[in-house]
Amino acid sequence: MWSHPKGSGRRAYMCLKEKGGCGGTARKAETLEDFVREAVFTALETPEFVDAVRGRGSEQEQEAERTLLTALRADELKLAGLEDDYYDGLLDRAGYARQRDRLTSRIEAMKNELGRLTGRHTLASLPADLPAAWEKADLAWRRRLIKAVVEKVLVYRVSRFGSNTFDRTTIEIVWRV
């Protein structure tokens, strides 16, 4: 399914023929996203589910994640120290900008690599109030959280064409555990 604006201007997920789909299945994006978000929140309220998801991955992946997290924390501290050096006059503007760009690029690359390692790092520090954290979080964090627990979302055709009511039975969430 592809996110696609409908003629009304509202976003929808559609199974587009030009993308190899059937062309006959569509859902309002907001409704489907709300359904998936609430299902993820419900799943993450279960300690057994969280433990099962956190426990995935080989020892090699877990070690790679620990190494990346250590390096990420170190670079974030360097970035903060760099800002202090600039404000204290130890670095000129050009030197600060060059080093900031270098560190920011490296930090972003490490975050992307951590995301690739199945998103377990997102689960490592789940906030107590997940709905409030969700509202404050950026899109990248939200995607990492969902990617950490959801393998895919299957959307089936509705039995009645043109129905304006959301039918939960036509949505299947395949969990990563």
Describe this structure in words.
This protein is an alpha+beta fold. The chain has a domain at 57-117. It is 56% helix and 12% strand. It is built from 7 helices and 5 strands, in the order βββαααααααββ. It has a 3-stranded antiparallel β-sheet with strand order 1-2-3. Strand 1 (2-5) and strand 2 (11-14) form a beta hairpin. Helix 3 (59-87) runs antiparallel to helix 4 (93-116). It is elongated and about 70 Å long.
Topology:
Elements: E1 2-5, E2 11-14, E3 26-28, H1 29-44, H2 47-54, H3 59-87, H4 93-116, H5 120-124, H6 130-136, H7 139-149, E4 150-155, E5 171-175
Antiparallel strand pairs: 1-2, 2-3, 4-5
Helix pairs in contact: 3-4
Concise synopsis of the structure shown:
The chain is of the alpha+beta class and 177 residues long. Helices cover 56% and strands 12% of the residues. The chain has a domain at 57-117.
The proportion of residues in beta strands is: 5-15%
- Overall 3D form: elongated
Report the C-alpha radius of gyration, rounded.
21 Å
For the largest beta sheet, what order do the strands appear in spatially?
1-2-3
Query: pLDDT average, as an integer?
Result: 82
Q: How do the helices and strands follow one another from N- to C-terminus?
A: EEEHHHHHHHEE
Most strands sheet = 3 strands, antiparallel
- Percent helix among the residues? 55-70%
Q: Would you tell me the structural class of the helices and strands?
A: alpha+beta
| Number of continuous helical runs | 7
- Could you give the distance between the termini? 23 Å
Q: How many DSSP-defined strands?
A: 5
Low-confidence stretches: none
